[in-house]
Specification:
The protein has 240 residues and is mainly alpha-helical. It has one domain. The chain has 8 helices and no strands. Helix 2 packs across helix 8. The longest helix is centred in the N-terminal third of the chain and has 31 residues. The chain is globular, with a radius of gyration of 17 Å. It starts with a helix and ends with a helix.
């Protein structure tokens, strides 16, 4: 139980670390783009190899498909709403457009992180923690925490308030991981498959609509290769 809390918190701590970097250091946009591209590849790989394929193999294509499409649709709807509130640029390291909302940026980042944390807890019910998932989430959260922090600064949030927000995310992700481990321990395999693939759908939709386009815009064509390296590394970690 304690391990679920700690692993979920560790994955979420990357947002806090990224926030610290965004507050006190100037990082080149291209470097952020490269990390984001690598994290995109690892996240897509983790979603495929650690969540989708095992669910399809163990529980069949029906719950896997239902969960995945539902997760992608849910994230897309939420993201469309947040876009209107100014959170569409939460992963960018440049200034956000006129009328952006610091609170929307925070909420959007939190929504990005919650499904991932729950899946970490679920992965520990019958086996040890998936290091592929933890690594993927940690790597992808670093540039998100960094760029979101810049957006919050543009919304005139103080350094103390920004650190409190990221500390809150750190705590919530740890609790969500714990909740996934404790509350879902006795549910059926079909339910676990739907929850896992729901999260996978949300992750893939998030990566495709936010991380990858922005990584390409700031990093250029090389990010395609970096994303591919991230994906194959996730495969290697999955089979080891």
């Amino acid at each position: 139980m304690l391990q679920a809390l700690l692993w979920g918190g560790l994955a979420g701590s990357a947002l806090f670390i990224g926030g610290i970097i965004g507050l006190y250091f100037n990082i080149k946009k291209t470097m952020i783009a490269y990390v984001m591209a690598f994290g995109s590849g690892v996240l897509i790989g983790a979603s495929s190899f650690e969540m989708l394929y095992p669910s399809a193999e163990d529980e069949g294509l029906v719950p896997t498909t239902i969960g995945f499409i539902s997760g992608a649709l849910f994230f897309t709807i939420i993201n469309l709403f947040l876009d209107k509130k100014g959170a569409n640029e939460r992963k960018r390291s440049r200034q956000n457009p006129e009328g952006h909302s610091g609170l929307a940026i925070f909420i959007g980042t939190l929504i990005d992180s919650l499904p991932e944390a729950v899946v970490i807890g679920i992965s520990m019910i019958d086996t040890k923690v998936s290091m592929v998932l933890v690594s993927a989430i940690f790597i992808s959260n670093l540039p998100e925490g960094l760029s979101s922090t810049i957006g919050l600064k543009e919304s005139q949030y103080s350094k103390a308030k920004i650190l409190i927000l990221w500390t809150t995310v750190f705590i919530i992700t740890g609790l969500c991981s714990l909740g996934g481990y404790v509350l879902l321990d006795d549910v059926s395999g079909h339910v676990i498959a739907i929850i896992n693939t729901f999260a996978a759908g949300g992750i893939v939709a998030m990566v495709s609509s936010t991380m990858m386009p922005e990584a390409y815009e700031d990093g250029g064509a090389i990010v395609g290769m970096i994303t591919s390296v991230g994906l194959i590394i996730s495969l290697v970690l999955s089979v080891l």
